[in-house]
Automatic annotation (TrEMBL):
The chain crosses the membrane at residues 12-39, 60-78, 84-103. Keywords: Membrane, Transmembrane, Transmembrane helix. It comes from Oceanimonas doudoroffii. This is Transmembrane protein (PGPGW). It comes from the Bacteria.
Length: 141
């Protein structure tokens, strides 16, 4: 029992969760708006996703970058899940991570999530503050 008390009295174990919460919170405040502003206004205007023009040029480089991006986004997704109980914008972070990940049916899921009124209003509020046009969905002008 004494060893357990000594383990939890270690200053590093006391400071590490607080510092990680602070980093997650500050990181989410900086990264999330930047990512939301990078979404093209007409990204959700079609029923299917547009093909990226450079996708067929160098398949090896494309796969390498895709794997690297997926690993980084997985870390971001885990941070978003952690922010559900820690300070930060957990749901919005998870939403952005899902936008960045590649998986079958992703585009339909993105459209469905971004069409939820509270998510859509929040994203368009961020875009308005940065003087960017709101997201356009099919049938909208």
């Amino acid at each position: 029992m004494n060893e357990l008390f000594e383990l939890f009295s270690n200053p590093a174990l006391i400071w590490a969760p607080g510092v990680s919460r602070g980093v997650c919170f500050i990181g989410s405040l900086l990264v999330i708006p930047w990512l939301v502003l990078r979404i093209p206004e007409n990204y959700f205007s079609d029923d299917s996703r547009h093909r990226v023009p450079w996708a067929r040029r160098n398949p090896l480089l494309r796969w390498l970058l895709l794997i690297l991006k997926s690993l980084l986004v997985l870390v971001y997704l885990l941070m978003g899940i952690a922010m559900l109980v820690l300070p930060g914008q957990g749901l919005l972070t998870i939403l952005i991570a899902l936008v960045l990940l590649n998986f079958p049916g992703k585009y339909r899921l993105e459209r469905r999530l971004f069409m939820v009124p509270t998510v859509r209003n929040t994203v368009n509020w961020l875009r308005r503050r940065a003087e960017r046009p709101p997201l356009i969905f099919d049938g909208e002008a």
